[in-house]
Amino acid sequence: MAPSYQISATDICLFLVAVFLIYKVSTNRKSIATGLRGPPSRSWLFGLANVIRNSEDVGLLYEQWSAEYGSVYTISGFLGQQKLVLCDPKAVAHFYSREAVVYVKTPIIRRIIEIMFGKNLVWVEGDLHRRQSLSFTQRKFLLPAFSNAAIRDLTHVFYDSAHRTSSAWDVILEASDGTSTIDVQNWMNRISMDSIGIAGFSHDFGAIDGKPQIFDSLDLSSGAVFFAFTVIVGNVFPAVLRLPSKRKGGLAAMNRVFTSIADQLLAKAKEHGNEEDKSVLSLLLKSETDDADIHMSREEIIAQVFLLSISGYETTSSKPHVAQWALIEMCKNVDIQNKLRTELVQFGNTDPTWEQLNSSLPYLDAVVHEALRTHPPVSETTRVAAEDDILPLTTPVVTKSGETIDSIFVTKGTLLTTPIRTLNRSEEIWGPDAKEFKPERWLEDNAPRAKEIKGHRHLLTFVNGPRTCLGKTFALTEFKAALFVIVKNFAFEFPGGRDTAIGKHSGSILPRPKVVGEEGARVPLRVRRV
């Protein structure tokens, strides 16, 4: 009989005992407070953790605190644990440039990644030598599969997935007099799943054709509160993640099922592979040989396959998430949708080449990057300092004692977070209309301070530095190809009108948009051929 993950009196007792033990440990640890200002704590137990978790727009919350306390400030977490929040461009650039060497994932984050995906490229850290050699060598090993030349050759795969979706929608529309309400979010996931399957593994998952997918039944909403508690507490006491929960159980089950699928993909690739193949799966298989430049175990290879596959469905690389938001924004502002379609129809019945996608469609590029700016899939990056460091500042800050400083000494063990959503939407950086979805900003040069952000097109959506998203070009090309086909051929609107409320669905690995009132992560749109 499967174990039950219902919270019982025993769980509550364990919680109280854990709180007591954590408190005893916390009172003995050395303070790492820096003397910086910050918002007052709301709870002696949780600090500001619950305020942040329950915020409707955590990016706006961080921005408001930055305006009051300076571009770098502290917030309190569980049992008063302090965390630095970096809203200063120079400090953020330094932070990302030293990620994986000085600023590493916390034990709780690494444990969650291991539960979800196994010991993959994202998980790798550890001691200094291992961080520098294994993580970076793995990335270098996989680079050929994500080079511009490789993505250029894969562009037809992305178009094929989009055109298959277009054909499927035609069938739906023909059966309903030319207009139908379609859950577009579900279809964006299908496009991404089949694209990554064919492009990365030479395997068609059949998502567009309606084959059941492992992730379709994934619902992590059960036990969300208890899991959030374990994450909050885990920054002080990582062992708390060993407590059972429905969400952790669901993630572990997903891992087991997909491990089996990944193993089958590897066996198939080994049987039919060739030496010239530069696909992700082929490169991973080569790493299994004893004479490979970098040797990965079977477990590590399967973990990489799992990570890359789920990135196509959920996102660590932004594809389906941001495509969904782009369509939502174009339903709110039909003028943007029509302007984009006017640009796209100039290509007639032909699909743009990879070069044309990147140079001949300026408004498509603007819509894509505005969606990346306003709706990053991951709202912040949290790391812990593995050694002492000094953060330079663009703008001096004032400490609690009234001293003005232009750099910050960070001690080993300090927690730091970079609020990606805040910096992407900051009015100080992007101007007074920063919260608006306005593709035209990418065709103008009215935000000079944006150039201070060191990231792809001055955004942090793909982060920056040595851990910049490896699949960035893959994601951008797939995103553009999908939008090109579906926006050129179909018009979209909310069934309930432009003012339809959009909320967040938390029953997935990352929050996803949903139409308020709909069950689950559903974004039904009224679709018609144009």
From TrEMBL:
> Please, which domain of life does this record's source organism belong to?
Eukaryota
What name goes with this protein? Cytochrome P450
Lineage from the top down? Eukaryota, Fungi, Dikarya, Basidiomycota, Agaricomycotina
Family, per the entry?
Belongs to the cytochrome P450 family.
InterPro entries associated with the record: Cyt_P450, Cyt_P450_E_grp-IV, Cyt_P450_sf, Cytochrome_P450_monoxygenase
Record localization: Membrane
A molecular function (GO) term: heme binding
Chain ranges passing through the membrane: 6-23, 220-241
Q: What is its main location?
A: membrane
Keywords from the named record: Heme, Iron, Membrane, Metal-binding, Monooxygenase, Oxidoreductase, Transmembrane, Transmembrane helix
State the pathway, as annotated in the record: Secondary metabolite biosynthesis; terpenoid biosynthesis
Provide the residue positions that the database annotates as binding heme.
C469
Organism of origin is Armillaria borealis
Cellular compartments per GO CC:
membrane
Pfam families tied to this protein: p450
Required co-factors: heme
